[in-house]
Structure formats: C-alpha cells, structure tokens
Write a structure and sequence with these properties.
alpha/beta, 434 Repressor (Amino-terminal Domain), Udp-n-acetylmuramoylalanyl-d-glutamate--2,6- Diaminopimelate Ligase, Chain: A, domain 1, 2 domains, 6-stranded mixed beta sheet, 13 helices
Length: 236
C-alpha cells in the first residue's frame, strides 16, 4: 500500500478516536477490526495489557493526541507485519474521502460464510428472500445509511462493496429501509444480502425491491450498532 494512502487511513482513524465521546470504545473498535489482541498492541507500545484494557473500558483517562497517534501507528504496523490484509481492505475506499466516513466497518472473509450464519450473528429476522439464504457471503460492509443517502452518488455506492459484491450490506440508522433498497436498485451491482439495523418499520417497497432483486432482506435485532459490529466480527 502506498505510504500516502496508509497515512490517510491513519489520520482518519486517529481523528475518529480523538473526536469520539468514548475514545476507549473507538480504540477497541479499530483494534478488533484489525484483529489485534490487547496483548499484541500492549507489547508493541511497550506497556502492560492492563493499560490498553483501562483505556478501552474508560477506567483510564482518554489518551492524548500523541498517544492516540502511537496507538494507530502500532495497529497499522502490526497489520503490515501480518501481510497488511486489513489495510488492503480499506485501501480502495480512500480515493473518496466521503466513502471512508460513511463506512463503519468492512471485512473480507478468508473463506465463504453461509448467509444463514450472518442472520444468526446479527440476531436477524428474515422478511424477504428466505429461499436465497443458501448462498455464500464473502464479506460485509456496515454503512451509516443517513450519510450514505445524503453524500453518495452511484460511484461512491459501488465502493462500499470492497473487493467483492458477494457480501452482506448492513445499513444502520435506517428509517424504513426504502432509501437503501432504492439505491441498490439504481446501481448495476447486487450484494448477496441486505441487513437493516432496527428500523422502526419496514417499507413495503423495500420488501418488494428485495423480492424482485432476489435478495435476502434481514432485520437485525441487536440493541446497538456497536453490538451489531462486534457480533459480526466475533461470531463469523
């Protein structure tokens, strides 16, 4: 990966941590996205694992900018030492600044995962396309749907697919699911399945589009977006 792109990713992650109301939870989110244990990160920083644990739990005061920069640099360096797979997953998103802001989490699986496993991981209720759950999923993308709808054109929407369209698109902050499904309908790309996180209701048109496009449409019942992402990372 080009150094400039790596630096842009580092800047984005560090900025999110510094600006977060719960910096420790944001550190934990990115550490887990990069599949790095507390001990690995602690060793790289030459501190005790309890220090990382205290930051992430909020027991220790949120770290300053210098510490955050060091944490982010070590996370990226550790990923590079393992082949840079997670950095690579984000690399094709960095060409558009708005894309990375809208994507809350993204992952490519090393081997195919049954769509039914995704349903279980997100505590899902299938509202359409039950018969298509025998297909495989090769990754997922969690999207802030409010920002995506406002900021994305067709080109940016295509970028949320990462390296493959055979993935679960997971939309958060959803009203009824109509807008995300219309956006998918208007592009030439199709995911393997669509997950909506706790919409107050499900629009009939959203269900109709899912049926016409032969897409499993799943409603996630996880309490929070953080729980949703944690479950996707840990249970798959």
């Amino acid at each position: 990966m080009e150094e400039s792109l790596k630096q842009r990713l580092a800047t984005k992650i560090a900025g999110e941590i510094v600006l977060s109301d719960q910096a420790g939870k944001t550190i934990k989110k990115w550490r887990e996205i990069f599949k790095i244990s507390q001990k690995e990160l602690a060793d790289a920083l030459s501190v005790s694992p309890s220090v990382i644990s205290d930051y992430e739990s909020g027991r220790r005061k949120s770290p300053g900018i210098v510490v955050v920069r060091n944490i982010v640099e070590k996370i990226l360096t550790l990923d590079e030492s393992k082949g840079g797979k997670i950095i690579f997953e984000f690399s094709n998103l960095l060409a558009g600044e708005s894309v990375l802001e809208v994507i809350l989490d993204i992952k490519e699986y090393s081997k195919p995962v049954p769509a039914k496993s995704i349903v279980e991981a997100v505590k899902g209720k299938v509202v359409s396309g039950q018969k298509y759950l025998d297909r495989d999923v090769f990754g997922y993308t969690v999207v802030d749907s409010l920002r995506a709808i406002v900021e994305f054109g067709p080109l940016e929407l295509a970028k949320i697919y990462g390296s493959t369209t055979q993935r679960a698109l997971v939309f958060t902050k959803v009203g009824s699911g109509r807008s995300p499904m219309i956006a998918i309908k208007l592009t030439s790309l199709r995911p393997s399945m669509v997950v909506l996180h706790k919409p107050p209701e499900v629009d009939k048109l959203a269900v109709k589009i899912a049926e016409s496009e032969k897409l499993p449409l799943v409603i996630s019942q996880t309490d929070t977006i953080e729980e949703l992402m944690q479950s996707l990372r840990s249970k798959i």
